[in-house]
Design brief:
Helix content: 25-40%
Oligomer: single chain
Structural class: alpha+beta
Mean pLDDT: 86
Number of strands: 15
Distance between the termini: 36 Å
Low-confidence stretches: 1-10
Amino acid sequence: MTRTKRGTNLGTNLVAASREWSTRPADQRFWNLRDLFEQSKEYAEQTSTRAAKLSECEVVPYNTEDLALKMPSHAMGYRNMATFQHYSFGQLCNIAQAPTNYLRGLPAQLAADNLNHGLRQVSGDQSLLLHQNGGLQLRCVTSDAYSRIWNYEVAEMALALEEGEGWRTPPARPCGLPGVPTRIATDADVMHKCAHPSMGIRVGDEISPAGLYVSDHDLFIFQVNEDYAIDAGDGEMLYRGVFWSNSEVGDARFRGTMFLFDSVCGNHIVWSAKIVADITIVHRGNAQEVFREMMAQATSMMTMSAHDDEFRIQKAKMHLLGAGQAEVVRLVFGKSWGLSKENCEQAYVLAIRHAEDHGTEPNTAWGYASGLTRLSQGVYADRRVELDRAAGKILELAL
């Protein structure tokens, strides 16, 4: 396979999509974004919200071994019983301050008694999200201040990018989990420019659905765009990528992680990512309005020309953070980014050591950010994310 020449400028390897690939069960995976969107939309249309006080609700045995939430009749009319989903049961246990795994193993009546004791202590109004498909199921309990961003809305935005701007989900090899289907990759499946040279998917390889996931409590979408190769200088070609994640039941905030990268392999590790930037929205207040505004800005960034990104990179290579190490460390350490002074100094040392690879001096935004991403490769995953985010913020100073 003919490949574009690549540089040696090390970035961070993003593993969020690979973790999803290796753990998601078959029923949460999709071959294409259209199917994910339609299922998420149908699921949302089958739900309704009800206001209730948990202190006035009661957990009762249901069908001998199961449990259900009995709601005040004035809140639901004649339909006042809802069974639990796996996530909503754990959520209610947390609200009642009861140990979830312990209660799952108790006889139904004993588990109900424990939960009811905790629920009687809960004050205020709550919002119950109920799914109707034959009977009622409780999907989640949130405060009345919760502002929901639906999973289908995120999928709809991703679908618009896919249908209009060349974005797509890269193929992945089989994950080995039970029940996950496979098929043989065609030319339409494979990535022709940004596939990893030794670990990417080729025509004739076996693949399984990956990069598109929805469960009863969350969503994750992985998209890349190889239509516009970005020249980062020194022979290095980069491409655009993004992770979208969301929970419509209060499990996590909405997050969009945008980045430039070198290649992606068959287990969905993103190699040598640069300019990693996050958009996050907390599900409260005017979250819906903020979501629409921020998505318009993100879409604008993700659809700009390759020349615009090349210009941004050159600006970062020319932008001086300080005259030398002392000034740069003082500037970065003074930001509220959670970096220790030792981290700031270590990143500068790495930027000096690999200045030739980075194609710029260590006191520039590009050089120092590259030092941070090199540093992130030698720390634990939780600290790695923090360092990578700081590298993105360094580059924002130049842009």
